[in-house]
Amino acid sequence: MNNKGQTFGITLLSVIFVFIIGFVCVNFLLTEVSTFRVNLNCASPATISDGTKLLCLMVDTTIPYWIYLVFAITVGAVAARIYL
């Protein structure tokens, strides 16, 4: 048996661990994003400037980007172990 077969189980366990930790961090990000949105008053778009609207938009995309990042890391780690 080559190295791929011997270390695939450890890689799978590591990927599951990273996946779980990544999604646990989403809960911490959610509280920070909601606090940031309240402090910037992102709920009423009529009273904020264009720069603040852009900042609110960037903060709103934090959670989806974090989820994409966690998926990319886990899939990349498994694919690297399979194909390399």
Compact description:
With 84 residues, the chain is mainly alpha-helical. The chain is built from three helices and no strands.
The ordered H/E elements are HHH
The assigned structural class equals mainly alpha
What share of the residues does DSSP label as strand, in percent? under 5%
Q: What Rg is obtained from the alpha carbons, in whole angstroms?
A: 19 Å
- Give the N-to-C terminal Cα separation: 15 Å
Q: Total number of β-strand segments?
A: 0
Shape, please?
Answer: elongated
Major beta-sheet overview: none
Descriptive keywords:
84 residues, 3 helices, elongated, mainly alpha
Can you walk me through this structure?
With 84 residues, this protein is mostly helical. It has one domain. The chain is 85% helix and 0% strand. The chain has three helices and no strands. It has helices spanning 3-40, 50-60, 62-83. Helix 1 (3-40) packs antiparallel against helix 3 (62-83). The longest helix is centred in the first third of the chain and has 38 residues, at 3-40. The relative contact order is 0.16.
